[in-house]
Design goal:
The protein contains twelve helices and twelve strands. It has about 350 residues and is of the alpha/beta class. The relative contact order is 0.13.
Amino acid sequence: MGCMSQVRVEQRDARDESAVLLKVRNLEVVFEKQRGLVRREKLQIRAVDNVSFDLQESEFVSIVGETGSGKSTLAKCLVRLQNPTSGSIIYGGKDIAQMNQRRLREYRREVQMIFQDPFESLLPRHDVYSAVSTPIRNLRGEKNHERLYDMTSRLLEEVGLEPGVIMRRLPHQLSGGQRQRVSIARALASDPSVLIADEPITMLDAAQRLNVLSLLMELRSKRKLTVLMITHDISSAKITSDRVIVMYLGKVIEIGKAESVVSSYHHPYVELILSSHTRLRSSAPQEIGGKSGEIGEARPVTGCVFEPRCRYSTDVCKKVEPQLAEISPLHYASCHNPLNIKRPEAS
């Protein structure tokens, strides 16, 4: 029932089926963890739990959630750095898990990833030229040194860097913002159709964050890129995205147009994120709280995964898992007691 419901949601949400570039269907990732020193016990952790959504051509989508919500694991599945336990990722009509080496190479040229930590993702002994030119050589087959240099220079200029100044610098000689721009240039080197940005501004200072977000929006428009951004910052998602997907403990719990999700949210978790964000901006840092518990807790055996933290929970929330359903036009949430519902006035 849950699987069918979620697939129907995404088909209806797709404005034009022919424009769908990438489909995720019923994706699950389960990790096994051992607990105990004397008496060993195996635990199963559902990092991604029955997730389905579509990405359209030239669309900017953000996946929002706290650390531990499963959003980065999902991103790794999309670039085949993590194999899902079940479900499918369809690109160009083919499941990427079934692709042969030649087709997988093409897929990795077309779907590129920007990693969270630009220092860790760049090899410390490789200068900027090597970092950006290597994917041009390996994924696009360009061997001519003059053309490689010209293509690398144009990519660096495109992301706001001066090739003559930065080309031969090593990662430790760059600022955090410069390193992230180099990482973006490297991701663009294969001329991809899809760009997956995993927490691209988390490691940057406040001044650089808006610059990088503006760059991603500009590249999306200029190159007609499809961008999937992973973030815990719902305000960044609002200013950049067409749609927002909210995840909690591996599940998609709300999905809709960015403005709608932020201003007329239906799930209590989104209310919690927004209220915590307001407190963080106006006072000393605080943990995101709720009725009780934190995201690190084990999920409940039955019912809604958010129930232990939800101040609106009722008996049904403890017993029955809510399904993703359309609460308002093109706005879906999995909640028994959805918020911000426009009810017809009594006559």
